[in-house]
Design brief:
The protein is of the alpha/beta class. The chain contains 15 helices and 22 strands.
């Protein structure tokens, strides 16, 4: 696949790195000379230092023969304009634009607006991830499979927990319900990062390991307890940062406004999640924001919330307002270092749970090591969303695991797809593919076995090695396509 990326910021370079590693033909257009030079020296792809808001530059980049154009500059308007210009030269090309303005994201309801196939909104994607975590008690990173009783969770093993020192073949003896360990992340001996391990029966789990599991929702409390994490109701929630992201999270918690007009709510997603887990959550919400004018806007928008115009770094304020009595703190400012430090400090003061927004996965690993319960790397969330749209076909979602080396993919089996023509054990998937879950609708979801035959319309979740996504997707696409 030939992909043109406009913008060599954090998202653009991370996306390019991922696509290059998967053997795609990538070209970057970046107007800033320093960014262009940085990308050129670190990525194995062509970089053009120029403005993409120029039809001749797009022609030089080969837009007429490209399969996809992804615009991720710092300007919403530029991202949309470039897609519009490119559409005139190649209307069949996939065009994806990142936008931050809430009004622009509503254009997604108008299919093909400005020639753009997909809009990606960083704050919306991050807010949905945060709300999903809150709905599950902010115990760890959790991904729900809508319409099924199953979820995929990532948990850090605590010292002296039931998982610490466990030989995996004895896992079933813990009575963890219908669940299984899929992937293990362990720090390398030289402390230079983490390695992803596909566990077997003889694998021994150790404290500090990060395990990824597929489990039924009703087994989650037991699993978290076995990992050394105790459940606690989230009756009082605080959000640090009342900007666009913080406001979207507040909107999801308070269920304010007209759901039809809300950009945070996918059809029935947030509402169904929160109704199911409402015993964990109460609507006692405090928003802490330093900007006075923004606090006035928040007070009008969320009259049921307590809005505090204060500096979260002021220790006297924390003591006076009893912020340390919160059950959950969500740090959602635009400064990832402040988010991490604030979360760690408030946890040391007695706040039970903490969710922090960070920019990159590297900071995410640091934050988890410091004891933050849920870390959401915003750039990774955006890249995952873009990759989901880029693969297309029956792919409904893509989530990178293990520092991007393994992907969790949700797909729909189309009519006459190759995967529907024989039992799973007879399908020659690429090496490393493991089918986790089949959702056949109407409450019929199950963990597949070798003699399972996938049917047309089934929603399937699987994990695969990075770089094989397009090859795997072909098994679920209609044979003729």
């Amino acid at each position: 696949m030939r992909v043109i990326i406009v913008g060599a910021g954090t998202v653009g370079t991370e996306l390019a790195r991922q696509l290059v590693s998967e053997k795609h033909d990538v070209l970057i257009i970046e107007n800033d000379a320093d960014r262009a030079r940085h990308a050129s020296s670190r990525l194995d792809c062509q970089v053009i230092q120029n403005s993409a808001n120029n039809i001749s530059v797009l022609e030089e980049a080969g837009v007429a023969k490209a399969d996809a154009l992804i615009t991720v500059t710092d300007s919403d308007e530029l991202n949309m304009i470039v897609c519009g210009l490119a559409s005139a030269k190649n209307p069949d090309m996939i065009k994806i634009a990142r936008v931050r303005n809430n009004d622009y994201i509503k254009l997604a309801d108008n299919n093909g607006a400005l020639g753009i196939n997909h809009f990606v909104h960083p704050n919306v994607e991050a807010a949905r991830s945060a709300l999903d975590a809150i709905a599950h008690g902010a115990m760890g990173d959790i991904l729900s499979f809508h319409g099924t009783p199953f979820c995929f969770c990532s948990i850090d093993i605590e010292t002296d927990s039931a998982f610490d020192g466990l030989i995996l073949k004895n896992y079933t003896s813990l009575n963890a319900g219908e669940s299984m360990v899929i992937l293990l992340e362990r720090e390398k001996e030289d402390k230079t990062g983490f390695e992803s391990i596909t566990p077997v029966g003889s694998t021994v789990l150790n404290r500090g390991d990060r395990i990824h599991l597929l489990a039924r929702e009703d087994a989650m409390d037991t699993i978290f307890s076995l990992a050394g994490r105790k459940e606690a109701p989230l009756r009082k929630i605080g959000i640090v940062g009342g900007g666009r992201l913080g406001a979207l999270i507040a909107e999801g918690i308070l269920d304010s406004g007209d759901a039809k007009q809300s950009i945070i709510t996918k059809p029935s997603f947030i509402n169904s999640i929160f109704k199911k887990f409402m015993p964990h959550i109460a609507n006692k919400l405090t928003i802490i924001e330093q900007d006075y004018d923004l606090c006035k806007e928040l007070s009008e928008r969320f009259p049921q919330a307590l809005i505090l115009n204060e500096d979260i770094t002021d220790e006297n304020f924390i003591a006076e307002e009893r912020i340390d009595g919160l059950d959950l703190i969500i740090t959602a400012t635009e400064m990832q270092e402040l988010n991490i430090i604030t979360a760690v400090y408030l946890k040391s003061r007695g706040v039970r749970r903490a969710i922090s927004m960070v920019t990159s996965p590297g900071y995410g690993a640091i934050a988890r090591k410091l004891g933050i319960d849920v870390v959401i790397p915003m750039k990774s969330v955006v890249v995952d969303s873009i990759l989901t749209h880029l693969i297309g076909g029956g792919v409904k979602g893509l989530h990178r695991l293990g520092e991007g080396k393994v992907n969790l993919i949700e797909l729909k089996a189309n009519d006459n797809a190759p995967v529907t023509k024989d039992k799973i054990l007879n399908i020659h998937f690429p090496p490393g593919v493991l089918l986790l879950l089949v959702n056949r609708g109407e409450g019929n979801s199950f963990i597949p076995h070798g003699d399972t035959t996938i049917q047309s319309g089934d929603q399937v979740a699987l994990i695969t090695k990075s770089g094989t996504e397009l090859e795997v997707a072909k098994f679920f696409a209609t044979s003729e396509t």
